[in-house]
C-alpha cells in the first residue's frame, strides 16, 4: 500500500551541512560586517532599500529551489520537515554570507509561525509555499496609535457583512510595511464583551484600495517605520484566522512567536549566530577600537570585553530557554527572559562603539570607518527596548507568568470593552 | 545547572546535596566561623568518598567520571556547593588533581592521597596583579642541578594552612613551570589572611629558596603554559557554577520572602517596582546557569572556545552574581544585613568567587585579547 517514497529517511545533519555549505559557497556572496543595513543605520535611500529587499526575495527563492528553505516547516507546505538542529546547521553555515534577512521577522515568525499554528489547511497551502519562495513578505498589524503594550485594547474594528468583513482603523510601528505584501491583523469584532474576548485575526494583501501606508521618520532619519490607515477595507471571511472573537487565543501564540523571533530563538528563523555580521556581532567593537586607535588601550579593551561577554552569554541563554520550554521545565512565557536579554545585547552593542569612539561619536567624517554614525546608533537604541513588546511588558510577564507574582491591577478586566476608559474623563 | 541530567548524574548530585544538608547545615556553617580549617573533622574525607576529588583523574589513577566528561560532572558538585555555601577546597584540590593527572603516572601517589581525601593540595597560582597583567607570574622556579628552587610570593592561596602540598605555578626564564611543593618544605611560610567567606580559608605563602627535587616538577620545566591556562579555565568555570548555585539559593529565598512579607496590606510580590527587579534577577540567574553550563561544555571538550566561554561565565557570574545578591539583601530590608539571616552565606560565596581566579574586569581584558586576536586572524 505504502510506496517506498513515503518512507524517506531523514537527511543526516552531516549530509545537510555538506549540501548547505556547497550551495552557500557556490551561490551566495560573502558580506562585509554591517553590510546588511538595518534601521540602526539611519537614513537609507529608497532605491537601495528596494534593491536589498529584491535580493532577499531572490536568495529566498534560490534557497527554496535548492531544498534549503523552510527547514522545520512540514513538507506538505513546501518545507523540508527537518529538525531545529538542521536549521541550526544552516544558520552556522551562513555566517559571513548574505542571507534573506528581510524575510525573517516578521514574515517567517511571527506571521508564518502563526499561520502554521492556527491557519486552516487551505490557508497554509495558499500562503506558506509562497512565503518560502520569497513571493510574500508579511507584516504585523498589531500596535495602534492608541497603545502599544496594551495589545488586546485594539480599536481597529471589523464588522461582518455577509461573507466579508469591513475593517476600519489604524496600525503603527510596522517596519518595512511600504515594501511588504501581506498583513496579519488583530481587530475588534465585539465591543460588548471584555477586551480579550472580542478580538479576531485577519490577513489581507497590502496593495489594495482601503489601505493607505504612511512612512514615519525616526529621530535619526530612518523611514522604515510605517503607519497604516484602513478605510472600509473588505476582507473575505475565508481570510479570517482562528475563531470569530477567538483572536486572543491566536494573539497569545502570536506574541510568543514574536518574543522568540526577537531573540532569533525560533526554528523557522534563518539567522546566522552572533548576529550574522549584524548589530550583535562583537567584532564591530574591535573595528571601532582599531579605527579609534585604541586597540591597546585597557579602557577600550574593557568595553570590548564587556560586549563580547554579553554576546557570548546570549547564545547559551537562548538555547537554555528554548530547551527549557520544549522540555516542559519552563512556561513558554519564559520567552520574555530571552526578549529582555536580547535588549541587554543590543543595548551593549549600540552603546559600546559610541563609548569607544570618544568625541568622534558626536562628530564624524567619511574617513572615520567603523566610528561613523556610532552616536546615531546610540541615540536610537531604545527602539529595541520598545519594538516587539517593551521591556516593561517583558518584566511584567516574567514576574507574573514565570514567577507567579500577583497581576497588576487592571481596570478593563471583566468589563465590556466599550465601557473601558480610554482617556481622562472630566467627571467620575 | 543543565535541565537534563542522566540518572547517574542525578543520583550523584542528590547524594552530595543530601550529604551537605546533613553534615553542614546553616547552623553548623555559622559555628565554623572561627574554626581554623573551616570544616568539621572527617568532612573532607567523607566527601572524597562521594567522588568530590576523583572526577578529573583517569581510571588508571583510581579516578573516573560519571558521564564521561568529569568536568561537567564536577560542575554539578560546584553548583551544590554554591547552593549550600558548603565548606571545603573543592576548586583548588580538583585543579591540582587535573594538573597531576595531565602529567601522567609520575605523580600517581600524590593523586591517590587526594582521591581518598586523606590529603589536601591547593593551587598556588594567584599573585598581586592588575587587570592588564592578569595571569603574569613573578614567582621564579629555577633549576639547580637535580633540584628546582622556588622564590616569590603567592596570595591568596586557598586552604593553604590545611594543605599538605602546593602546586606552585611560576616562571623559569620565559617559560612557565609547575612544581608540587610539600607543605613542610624548608623556606615555605604561610601567613593567614582574613577572608570574606565564613568557611573559606586563605593565606599568603612565601617561598624563600624552597628546594625540591626535579621529580616534583609537574609537566615540563618551562613548558607548562598551556596546562596553567587550562587550569585557569577549570577554576573559572567551577567558580561560575558555584556562584550560580549560590545565586539560585539567594533568589529562591527572596522570592519566597516577597510572597510572605506584607507591607501596606499587600505582599511585596505585588509591587511592580519590585516585580521588575525580580524579573531582572531571574534573567541574570538563567543567564548565569546558561553561561556556566556552556563554559563547562567548552572546557570539557577542550575546544578553541574554552578560554572565551570560561572567561565569559566568570565575568558574567562575578558581576551579576554580586548584583543579584545585593538586590536580595535590599529586598529583605534590615534583616538582610544581619549575621542572623542566611542570605550573607550566599553573598559571601558569591563575593569570594567574584574576586578569585580573575575578577570580572580581569576576565574582560582576557575576552578582549581573545576577540582582538580572533579578528586579526
Task: Walk me through this protein's architecture.
The complex is a heterodimer of chains A (428) and B (377). Chain A is an alpha+beta fold and 428 residues long. In chain A, 40% of the residues lie in helices and 12% in strands. Chain A has 12 helices and 8 strands. A 4-stranded mixed sheet of chain A has the order 1-4-5-8. In chain B, helix 1 (7-23) packs parallel to helix 4 (70-83), helix 7 (225-260) packs antiparallel against helix 8 (272-301) and helix 8 runs antiparallel to helix 9 (306-332). Chain B folds into 3 domains: 7-119, Butyryl-Coa Dehydrogenase, subunit A, domain 1 (Orthogonal Bundle); 123-216, Butyryl-CoA Dehydrogenase, subunit A, domain 2, CATH 2.40.110.10; 225-376, Butyryl-CoA Dehydrogenase, subunit A, domain 3 (Up-down Bundle). The radius of gyration of chain B is 21 Å and the shape is globular. The mean pLDDT of chain B is 96. Chain B has 11 helices and 10 strands. Chain B has a 4-stranded mixed sheet with strand order 1-4-5-8. With 377 residues, chain B is an alpha+beta fold. Chain B has helices at residues 7-23, 26-31, 43-49, 70-83, 90-102, 108-116, 225-260, 272-301, 306-332, 343-355, 360-376; strands spanning 121-124, 140-144, 147-158, 165-172, 175-182, 188-193, 202-213, 217-218, 262-263, 266-267. Helix content of chain B is 50%, strand content 16%. The interface between A and B is large, with 45 and 45 residues.
Quick structural overview:
With 428 residues, chain A is of the alpha+beta class. In chain A, 40% of the residues lie in helices and 12% in strands.
Write the layout of secondary structure elements.
The complex is a heterodimer of chains A (428) and B (377).
Chain A: H1 13-27, H2 46-65, H3 84-93, H4 104-118, H5 121-132, E1 138-141, E2 157-161, E3 164-172, E4 182-188, E5 199-205, E6 211-216, E7 225-236, E8 240-241, H6 247-262, H7 283-291, H8 298-326, H9 335-357, H10 374-379, H11 383-386, H12 391-402
Parallel strand pairs in A: 1-4
Antiparallel strand pairs in A: 2-3, 3-7, 4-5, 5-8, 6-7
Helix pairs in contact in A: 1-3, 4-5, 4-6, 6-9, 7-8, 7-9, 8-9, 9-12
Chain B: H1 7-23, H2 26-31, H3 43-49, H4 70-83, H5 90-102, H6 108-116, E1 121-124, E2 140-144, E3 147-158, E4 165-172, E5 175-182, E6 188-193, E7 202-213, E8 217-218, H7 225-260, E9 262-263, E10 266-267, H8 272-301, H9 306-332, H10 343-355, H11 360-376
Parallel strand pairs in B: 1-4
Antiparallel strand pairs in B: 2-3, 3-7, 4-5, 5-8, 6-7, 9-10
Helix pairs in contact in B: 1-4, 4-7, 4-8, 5-6, 5-7, 7-8, 7-9, 7-10, 8-9, 9-10, 9-11
Amino acid at each position: 500500500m505504502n510506496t517506498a517514497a513515503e518512507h524517506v529517511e531523514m537527511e543526516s545533519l552531516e549530509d545537510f551541512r555538506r549540501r548547505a555549505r556547497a550551495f552557500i559557497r557556490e551561490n551566495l556572496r560573502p558580506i562585509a560586517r554591517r553590510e546588511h543595513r538595518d534601521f540602526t543605520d539611519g537614513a537609507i535611500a529608497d532605491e537601495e532599500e528596494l534593491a536589498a529587499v529584491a535580493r532577499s526575495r531572490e536568495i529566498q527563492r534560490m534557497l527554496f529551489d535548492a531544498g534549503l528553505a523552510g527547514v522545520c516547516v512540514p513538507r506538505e507546505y513546501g518545507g523540508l520537515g527537518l529538525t531545529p538542529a538542521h536549521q541550526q546547521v544552516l544558520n552556522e553555515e551562513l555566517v559571513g554570507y548574505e542571507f534573506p534577512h528581510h524575510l525573517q521577522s516578521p514574515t517567517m515568525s511571527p506571521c508564518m509561525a502563526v499561520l502554521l499554528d492556527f491557519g486552516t489547511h487551505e490557508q497554509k497551502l495558499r500562503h506558506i509555499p509562497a512565503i518560502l519562495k520569497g513571493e510574500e513578505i508579511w507584516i504585523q498589524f498589531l500596535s495602534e496609535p492608541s497603545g502599544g503594550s496594551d495589545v488586546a485594547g485594539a480599536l481597529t474594528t471589523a464588522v461582518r457583512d455577509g461573507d466579508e468583513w469591513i475593517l476600519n482603523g489604524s496600525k503603527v510601528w510596522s517596519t518595512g510595511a511600504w515594501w511588504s505584501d501581506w498583513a496579519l491583523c488583530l481587530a475588534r469584532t465585539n465591543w460588548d464583551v471584555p477586551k480579550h474576548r472580542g478580538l479576531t485575526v485577519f490577513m489581507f494583501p497590502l496593495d489594495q484600495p482601503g489601505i493607505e501606508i504612511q512612512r514615519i521618520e525616526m529621530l535619526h532619519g530612518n523611514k522604515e517605520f510605517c503607519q497604516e490607515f484602513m478605510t472600509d477595507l473588505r476582507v473575505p471571511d475565508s481570510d479570517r484566522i482562528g475563531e470569530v472573537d477567538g483572536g486572543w487565543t491566536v494573539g497569545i501564540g502570536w506574541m510568543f512567536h514574536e518574543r522568540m523571533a526577537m531573540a532569533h530563538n525560533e526554528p523557522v528563523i534563518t539567522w546566522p549566530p552572533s548576529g550574522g555580521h549584524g548589530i550583535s556581532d562583537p567584532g564591530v567593537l574591535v573595528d571601532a577600537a582599531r579605527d579609534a586607535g585604541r586597540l591597546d588601550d585597557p579602557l577600550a579593551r574593557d568595553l570590548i570585553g564587556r560586549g563580547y561577554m554579553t554576546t557570548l552569554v546570549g547564545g547559551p541563554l537562548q538555547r537554555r530557554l528554548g530547551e527549557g520550554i520544549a522540555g516542559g521545565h519552563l512556561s513558554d512565557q519564559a520567552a520574555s527572559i530571552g526578549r529582555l536579554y536580547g535588549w541587554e545585547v543590543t543595548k551593549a552593542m549600540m552603546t559600546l562603539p559610541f563609548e569607544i569612539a570618544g568625541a568622534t561619536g558626536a562628530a564624524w567624517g567619511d574617513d572615520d570607518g567603523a566610528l561613523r554614525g556610532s552616536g546615531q546608533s546610540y541615540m536610537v537604541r531604545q527602539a529595541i527596548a520598545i519594538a516587539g513588546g517593551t521591556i516593561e511588558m517583558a518584566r511584567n510577564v516574567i514576574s507574573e507568568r514565570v514567577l507567579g507574582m500577583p497581576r497588576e491591577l487592571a481596570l478593563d478586566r471583566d468589563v465590556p470593552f466599550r465601557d473601558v476608559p480610554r482617556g481622562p474623563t472630566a467627571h467620575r | 545547572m543543565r535541565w537534563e541530567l542522566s540518572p547517574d548524574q542525578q543520583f550523584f548530585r542528590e547524594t552530595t546535596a543530601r550529604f551537605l544538608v546533613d553534615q553542614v547545615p546553616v547552623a553548623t556553617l555559622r559555628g565554623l566561623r572561627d574554626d581554623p580549617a573551616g570544616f568539621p573533622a572527617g568532612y573532607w574525607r567523607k566527601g572524597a568518598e562521594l567522588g568530590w576529588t576523583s572526577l578529573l583523574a583517569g581510571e588508571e589513577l583510581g579516578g573516573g567520571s560519571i558521564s564521561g566528561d568529569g568536568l561537567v560532572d564536577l560542575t554539578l558538585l560546584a553548583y551544590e556547593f554554591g547552593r549550600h555555601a558548603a565548606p571545603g577546597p573543592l576548586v583548588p584540590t580538583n585543579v591540582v588533581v587535573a594538573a597531576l593527572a595531565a602529567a601522567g603516572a609520575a605523580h600517581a601517589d600524590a593523586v591517590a592521597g587526594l582521591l581518598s581525601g586523606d590529603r589536601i593540595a591547593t593551587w598556588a597560582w594567584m599573585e598581586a596583579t592588575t587587570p592588564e597583567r592578569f595571569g603574569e607570574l613573578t614567582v621564579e622556579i629555577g633549576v639547580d642541578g637535580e633540584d628546582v628552587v622556588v622564590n616569590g610570593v603567592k596570595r591568596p592561596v586557598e586552604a593553604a594552612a590545611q594543605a599538605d602540598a602546593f602546586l606552585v605555578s611560576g616562571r623559569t626564564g620565559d617559560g612557565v613551570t609547575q612544581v608540587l611543593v610539600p607543605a613542610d618544605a624548608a623556606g615555605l611560610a604561610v601567613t593567614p589572611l582574613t577572608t570574606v567567606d565564613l568557611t573559606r580559608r586563605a593565606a599568603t605563602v612565601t617561598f624563600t629558596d624552597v628546594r625540591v627535587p626535579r621529580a616534583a616538577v609537574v609537566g615540563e620545566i618551562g613548558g607548562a603554559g598551556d596546562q596553567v591556562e587550562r587550569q585557569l579555565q577549570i577554576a573559572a568555570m567551577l567558580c561560575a557554577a558555584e556562584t550560580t548555585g549560590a545565586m539560585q539559593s539567594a533568589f529562591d529565598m527572596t522570592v519566597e520572602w516577597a510572597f510572605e512579607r506584607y507591607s501596606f496590606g499587600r505582599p511585596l510580590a505585588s509591587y511592580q517596582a519590585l516585580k521588575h527587579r525580580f524579573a531582572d534577577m531571574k534573567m541574570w540567574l538563567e543567564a548565569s546557569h546558561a553561561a556556566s553550563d556552556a563554559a563547562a561544555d567548552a572546557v570539557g571538550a577542550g575546544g578553541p572556545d574554552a578560554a572565551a566561554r570560561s572567561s565569559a561565565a566568570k565575568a558574567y557570574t562575578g558581576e551579576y552574581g554580586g548584583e543579584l545578591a545585593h538586590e536580595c539583601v535590599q529586598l529583605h530590608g534590615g534583616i538582610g544585613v544581619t549575621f542572623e539571616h542566611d542570605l550573607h552565606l550566599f553573598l559571601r560565596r558569591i563575593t569570594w568567587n567574584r574576586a578569585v581566579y580573575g575578577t570580572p574586569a580581569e576576565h574582560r581584558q582576557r575576552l578582549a585579547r581573545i576577540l582582538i586576536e580572533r579578528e586579526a586572524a
